[in-house]
C-alpha cells in the first residue's frame, strides 16, 4: 500500500485529508492507438464531493466508465476500501456499494417511480427463489425504495409513470435509484444535463445533502454548480489530469484557465 | 372504467372462458373436444414462450425444440407393449426439456437481438435433425406412443388417460396450474427482475443484477413448461413426429403469442384459440390457408398493437372518445 500511495503523489493528485473510499491508481484506457485516459489518479473520500471537469473529449466519460465497471481499464488499479476491485464488472461493483447514474437518463420508463426504486432496492437482497412471494410484500425493500424517493425529493410522486415525468424529475429519479441501492460511493454522470436553472438549483441542494456519509464523484459541465458544491476538483484535458485540488486552487490556476476556462467563463 | 373495474371485468371474462372450457365436452362432439384439448395444450406452450418473448424480451425462434424433446421423451420411454408409468414419464419428459433449455441457454443467451433469434433457430434445427435423421427418432414418420401413461400409484389409479374425457380434464387442470404458477412467478421478485430486463437490461446490470443468470433461469423454466405442453401433446395424439420440433412449429407458437398480445398470459391463451380457430376456418376454404393466415398476422401486427388482449381497452378508448366529442 505504501508503494501505491507514493504513486498517487507522483501523479500529482489532490492531497487526501479524509477517509479514502474509492481510489483510482494510474488508470489508462486505450482505444486502438488513442489513449482516452492516461495515468489518471483520483481519490474519493467519505463526506466529500469530488468534481471531474474537462472539455468535451477530455476523457471524463471513459474515466467514470472504468470506475463503474462498464469499461475495463487497459492499465492501472481501482481500490475500494483498500481492496483491489479492478477485475469486477458493473453488477459486482454495484453490489459492493458503488452506485452510478447516467448522463443520458437511464431509467425504466414504463414503470412507476416506486417500481424503478423498488427494483433498485431489491438488488440488495434479491431473493429470486421466493417464486410465490408477492414482490410488493417484501417490506424491507419497499421501505428502502420509499426512503430513497423521499431523499431525492420525489415524495408524493411514487405512482407516477417514470417516462411521463419532466426531464428534471427523471434526473432526480436517476439519483433516487442509486440511493435505493444503498451505495456508499456515488458516481454521478452530469446529473444537471439539460436542466433549467430552477431545476439545477434544486439538484445542487440535493447533491449537498447527499455528501454526508457518502463519497461522490460528479462529472459536470455546469461551472457554477461545480464550484458551489465541490470539495475537490480534478480537471482533465486530452485524457490526462491537468490539475487537481480545492476549488480556489483550480479557479486561480493559470494552466486550467488557458486550457479550459480561458473562454472568459470564470 | 377505472383500472380496478377493468381487471375485475378481465377476471370475469377469464372465469367465463374457463367455465365454457369445462362445460364443453357436455355439448361438443368428441372431435371438437379433442380439438379444444389441443388448443389448451398449445395455450400452455404459448404461455411458456410468452415468459421469454413478452416478459423477458427474449424472442426465441426455436421454442418448439423443448416441446418436441419432451414429446419424444414420452415416445422413447414408453415400452412397445406396455404403458409407461405417468409419475416417471412426466417428470422425465419435463426434465429432458428443461435440461436441453438450460444447456442451449448457456450458449444462446450470450447473444442479443437478431443473433439471438438466429441461434435459437439454429439449435432447434439441430434438435430437429437429431430426431429426423438418426436411429433415435424413427425418421420423418416419427414414433407411435402405443399406450398412454398409466397413472397408477401404489396400487391406486386416480384417473385413466385412456378415457378421453378424463384426459381432457387433466389438460384443463394443467392449463389452470401453469397459468396460476406463471401469474405468481411474475409478481415475485424474480418475475419483476425479468420485466426489468425486458425494459432495460443494461440498467439492471448497473443496479447489481447478474442478468445472465436470471435469463438462464427464465429460459430453463420456459423450456420446462414447453415440455409440459409437449408431454400432453404426445399423450393426446399418441404419436410424435419431427414436425413437433420444426421451425414451423416455433413460428406458429410465436404467432399465437403475437396474435394474443405479448406480455399477457391470458393473451397467449386467447392467441392459441384464435390461431387454431383461423387455421381450421381457412383450411376449410382453401389448401393455401397459410397465405390467409399470413395476411391476418400482418394485419394484426399493423392494426392491432398489443394483440387481442389489448382490444377491449382500445375499443373502450374509442367509445369514450366519441362520447367526449358528442
Task: Show the helix and strand layout.
The complex is a heterodimer of chains A (266) and B (326).
Chain A: H1 2-10, E1 20-31, E2 34-45, E3 49-53, H2 60-68, E4 75-80, E5 83-84, H3 90-95, E6 98-101, H4 113-122, H5 139-151, H6 167-180, E7 185-189, H7 197-210, E8 215-219, H8 223-229, E9 232-237, E10 240-245, H9 247-252, H10 254-261
Parallel strand pairs in A: 3-8, 3-9, 6-7, 7-8
Antiparallel strand pairs in A: 1-2, 1-4, 4-5, 9-10
Helix pairs in contact in A: 4-5, 4-6, 5-6
Chain B: H1 3-27, H2 30-56, H3 64-77, H4 86-108, H5 113-133, E1 143-144, H6 164-187, H7 189-206, H8 211-237, E2 239-240, H9 247-260, H10 265-285, H11 289-303, H12 311-325
Antiparallel strand pairs in B: 1-2
CATH architecture group name of the largest domain in chain A: 3-Layer(aba) Sandwich
Average pLDDT level of chain B: 93
Q: How large is the share of residues in beta strands of chain B?
A: under 5%
Q: How much is the radius of gyration of chain A in Å? A: 19 Å
Give the uncertain stretches of chain A in residue-range form: 1-11
How are the strands ordered across the major sheet of chain B?
1-2
Predict the CATH topology of the largest domain in chain A: Rossmann fold
Q: Strand count, sense and closure of the main sheet of chain A? A: 6 strands, mixed
Radius of gyration of chain B: 20 Å
Q: CATH superfamily of the largest domain in chain A, please?
A: P-loop containing nucleotide triphosphate hydrolases
> Distance between the terminal alpha carbons of chain B, to the nearest Å?
19 Å
> How many discrete structural domains of chain A?
2
How would the global form of chain A be characterised?
Answer: globular
Question: In terms of quaternary structure, what is this?
Answer: heterodimer
Write out the strand line-up for the largest beta sheet of chain A, numbering strands in chain order: 6-7-8-3-9-10
Question: Which blocks of ≥5 consecutive residues of chain B have pLDDT under 50?
Answer: none
Q: Based on helices, strands and strand pairing, what is the structural class of chain B? A: mainly alpha
Shape of chain B: globular
Strand content of chain A: 15-25%
SSE string of chain A, helices as H and strands as E: HEEEHEEHEHHHEHEHEEHH
Amino acid at each position: 500500500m505504501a508503494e501505491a500511495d507514493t504513486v498517487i503523489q507522483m501523479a500529482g493528485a489532490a492531497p487526501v485529508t479524509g477517509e479514502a473510499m474509492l481510489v483510482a491508481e494510474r488508470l489508462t484506457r486505450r482505444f486502438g492507438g488513442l489513449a482516452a485516459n492516461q495515468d489518471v489518479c483520483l481519490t474519493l473520500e467519505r463526506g466529500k464531493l469530488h468534481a471531474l471537469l474537462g472539455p468535451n473529449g477530455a476523457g471524463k466519460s471513459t474515466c467514470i466508465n472504468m470506475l463503474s465497471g462498464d469499461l475495463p481499464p487497459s492499465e492501472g488499479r481501482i481500490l475500494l476500501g483498500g481492496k483491489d476491485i479492478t477485475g469486477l464488472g458493473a453488477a459486482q461493483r454495484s453490489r459492493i456499494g458503488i452506485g452510478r447514474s447516467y448522463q443520458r437518463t437511464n431509467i425504466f420508463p414504463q414503470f412507476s417511480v416506486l417500481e424503478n426504486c423498488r427494483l433498485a432496492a431489491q438488488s440488495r437482497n434479491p431473493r429470486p427463489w421466493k417464486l410465490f412471494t408477492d414482490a410488493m410484500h417484501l417490506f424491507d425493500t419497499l421501505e428502502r425504495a420509499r426512503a430513497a424517493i423521499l431523499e431525492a425529493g420525489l415524495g408524493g410522486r411514487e405512482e407516477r409513470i417514470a417516462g411521463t415525468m419532466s426531464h428534471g424529475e427523471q434526473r432526480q429519479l436517476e439519483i433516487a435509484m442509486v440511493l435505493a441501492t444503498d451505495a456508499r460511493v456515488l458516481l454521478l454522470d452530469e446529473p444537471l444535463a439539460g436542466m433549467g436553472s430552477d431545476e439545477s438549483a434544486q439538484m445542487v441542494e440535493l447533491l449537498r445533502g447527499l455528501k454526508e456519509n457518502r463519497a461522490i464523484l460528479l462529472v459536470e459541465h455546469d461551472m457554477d454548480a461545480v464550484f458551489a458544491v465541490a470539495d475537490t476538483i480534478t480537471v482533465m484535458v486530452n485524457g490526462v489530469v491537468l490539475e487537481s485540488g480545492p476549488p480556489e486552487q483550480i479557479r486561480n490556476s493559470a494552466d486550467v484557465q488557458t486550457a479550459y476556462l480561458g473562454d472568459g467563463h470564470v | 372504467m377505472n383500472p380496478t373495474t377493468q381487471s375485475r371485468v378481465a377476471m370475469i371474462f377469464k372465469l367465463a372462458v374457463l367455465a365454457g372450457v369445462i362445460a364443453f365436452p357436455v355439448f361438443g362432439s368428441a372431435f371438437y373436444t379433442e380439438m379444444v384439448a389441443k388448443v389448451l395444450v398449445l395455450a400452455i406452450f404459448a404461455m411458456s414462450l410468452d415468459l421469454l418473448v413478452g416478459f423477458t424480451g427474449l424472442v426465441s425462434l426455436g421454442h418448439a425444440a423443448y416441446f418436441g424433446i419432451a414429446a419424444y421423451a414420452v415416445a422413447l420411454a414408453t415400452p412397445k407393449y406396455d404403458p409407461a408409468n405417468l409419475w416417471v414419464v412426466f417428470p422425465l419428459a419435463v426434465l429432458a426439456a428443461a435440461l436441453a433449455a438450460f444447456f442451449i441457454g448457456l450458449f444462446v443467451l450470450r447473444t442479443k437481438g437478431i443473433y439471438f433469434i438466429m441461434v435459437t433457430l439454429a439449435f432447434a434445427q439441430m434438435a430437429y435433425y437429431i430426431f429426423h435423421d438418426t436411429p433415435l427418432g424413427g425418421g420423418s414418420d416419427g414414433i407411435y406412443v402405443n399406450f398412454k401413461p398409466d397413472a397408477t400409484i401404489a396400487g391406486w389409479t386416480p384417473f385413466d388417460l385412456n378415457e378421453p374425457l378424463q384426459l381432457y380434464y387433466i389438460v384443463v387442470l394443467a392449463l389452470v396450474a401453469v397459468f396460476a404458477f406463471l401469474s405468481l412467478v411474475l409478481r415475485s421478485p424474480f418475475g419483476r427482475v425479468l420485466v426489468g430486463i425486458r425494459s432495460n437490461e443494461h440498467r439492471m446490470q448497473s443496479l447489481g443484477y447478474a442478468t445472465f443468470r436470471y435469463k438462464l433461469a427464465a429460459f430453463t423454466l420456459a423450456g420446462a413448461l414447453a415440455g409440459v405442453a409437449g408431454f400432453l401433446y404426445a399423450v393426446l395424439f399418441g404419436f410424435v413426429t419431427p414436425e413437433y420440433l420444426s421451425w414451423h412449429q416455433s413460428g406458429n407458437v410465436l404467432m399465437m403469442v403475437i396474435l394474443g398480445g405479448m406480455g399477457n398470459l391470458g393473451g397467449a391463451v386467447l392467441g392459441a384459440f384464435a390461431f387454431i380457430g383461423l387455421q381450421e376456418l381457412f383450411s376449410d376454404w382453401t389448401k393455401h390457408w397459410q397465405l390467409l393466415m399470413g395476411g391476418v398476422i400482418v394485419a394484426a401486427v399493423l392494426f392491432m398493437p398489443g394483440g387481442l388482449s389489448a382490444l377491449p381497452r382500445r375499443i373502450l378508448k374509442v367509445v369514450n372518445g366519441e362520447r367526449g366529442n358528442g
